[in-house]
Amino acid sequence: MSDELQNHTISGVDEGLASDESILKTHTRIRREPFFVASPVLFTTAFALIIVFIFGWFYQRRYMGEQNPQMYLHERTDIALYNDWLERPRGPIVYDYYAIGEKLYTTMACVGCHQANGEGLPGQFPPLAGSEYVKIEDSTLTTKVLLSGLVGPVTVKGSEYNGNMAAYGGLKDQEIAGLVTFIRKNWGNESSEVTKDDVAGVRGEIGSRDPWTAEELNSYFQ
Amino acid sequence: MNLIGNLCSSLCSNLEGDAKNREAQRTIDAAIRFPLLSIFKASIVWMLIATVFGLIASIKLHTPGFIEECQYMTYGKVEPIFWNTLIYGWLFNAGLGCAVFLLARIGGTPLKQGVFLTITTVIWNLAVVIGVVGIILGDQLPYKWLEFPSYTAPILFISFLGIGLWCAMAFRARVQRTTYASQWWILTALFSFAWIYSAAQIMLVCSPAQGAFQTLVSAWYAENVFGLLIAPLAFATIYYLIPKTLGIAVVGYRYTGIAFWSWILFASVAGTAKMVNGPIPVWVASVGVIATFGLLLPTTTFSIQFLGSLLSRFSKIWDTASARFLIAGVLSFIVTMLFKSFGALRGSQEVVQFSIFESGVNQLALFGFAGMVFTGASYFILPRLLNKEFPSPTLVDLQFWAHGMGLVLLCIGSISGGIQQGELINGSTADMLAVVNTMRSSYFLASTGLSFILVGAIAYNVTFFWMLLSARSKKEASTSLIEEAPELEYTAS
Which residues from chain B sit within 8 angstroms of residue A8, using beta carbons? Predict the structure, then answer.
């Protein structure tokens, strides 16, 4: 061990290196210095303030909980009134399927292939307007194709197409029903409306499966 | 064996001739010598007792058969005795001792009514003894860090009012009109402890709050004992010791006010974070989590101030016992606050909420942060009170390294062990017996850490009583032992 290191041992008494009065006076003078100067302490403190503020802001948005009016009601009559209001008779939910479908058709991938006018692209994507797959009396065919997709060669309105229709089984029942209703009632098509329950029935029947091929669906046209 | 004579020579030193400032300091020290020595005596003995009880409690976790036949030493009694003697015995006395010394020295005038302070602190310590005996006899209360039986509470509170009154008078008697950060923190600790202790006693013991609200008050109180009593006293000590032992002004002292107010703002509500997933409105716990995370703001300011000052005079740390303890305390503080802030988040609490993690962080905060700082300060104060050198610097060295090593082992055992325990318990098919067996090595590490700290505590006791009882050497009887401190220069930044 070198001498320098050996010299660093604790002595018998810790030296006082500043007198008490000068500690008080010097620090009082420091407190009168300007506040906003380039100081590492100010910089890191400001940084921590920003971090804490951002954290606190998002945390309170996420975790402050719902304000439940019941927590503030103390009169029994008020609580009873509130409970009655919670249990008020409510009718079944009425869906406007056409509106749901119209919104989804334009915001999802549908419009990209089948186009806004429902005519598709000749030779690439089959049309929906006037298509036998859409106009058909038994709407389960259209629902099946939308739920599980369709691959391979298919003949629509006399033209051959060989494409790949993606599956949209991830959508909710009322959304599938909305899309099917929309394409069956738009662009001159005048077929029946499809409801949420119809879709649920088809979904339960086919389960989750690979995309259909045209041959599998031939039975609909015989 | 002239014990009594030596004791008297320690208490009533008679030294002639000295520089004028040193003479003034000696009158200041002489005025508080008797109460201060009794406070430090109590704190040092309580440290030994607390560590012994902590070690017994820790051993019982991995060897349940340890002292099992004694009905007074069951785990349920030993564990609260450990925490209560640690806080109200050791740390309260040590912090109070530092506070009295700082008030006298910064105030710059000999303080009167030392006898009053002595009597109140003796009553406080008697109340702690009664509380420990009460716990052993089975009268303990079920609230964290308030386990002392209800009949000790009035004694503790009234004696604390006496102590607080004396300190307020001591502050008022100061010569200079301006104040220093140490004095702010001491007043904070005194006023807020009177507040939190009375509030908790009234809402938990005198007229208990209804239902789930009790747990909320209990969690709030336990966190505030650290945040508004122990930590402020330790901050006061650090702010005083940095210029005193390093000879420089505290780095960035201009921004102390930010740290002071934001600490008080956040620390006073941080305790409710413990109630995450508890039977209370969710926003109460969320405010607590945000406040605990917000403690990172004052922590940042403190860290840069303290570390910046200490590291700029790094060589002093190895020559000076108190500065060495100081940097260990500051580092423990930073680690503690990181664990506290990030451990309070909902994601972390899902893992660590019912594990030994929290107890590990508390031990790091109390043994590491507050314990190291107060011990360092006592090594600065005692030679000045007694006009004696350390009898053996090796023992001081031994305590530092034993305490430090013990802390590292405690950290690994309790904190990382707590995270492991929480993860194991969270498994839906957890086999509790297998979890306990896996945890045995962590418990064993914690016990090893506490036995290291016990070695340190014994070294501390030996140093103190050796110093108190030994006869003065020729050098110590002269006035040149403690030199006059130079002026602290003001350098504009």
Answer: 315, 318-319
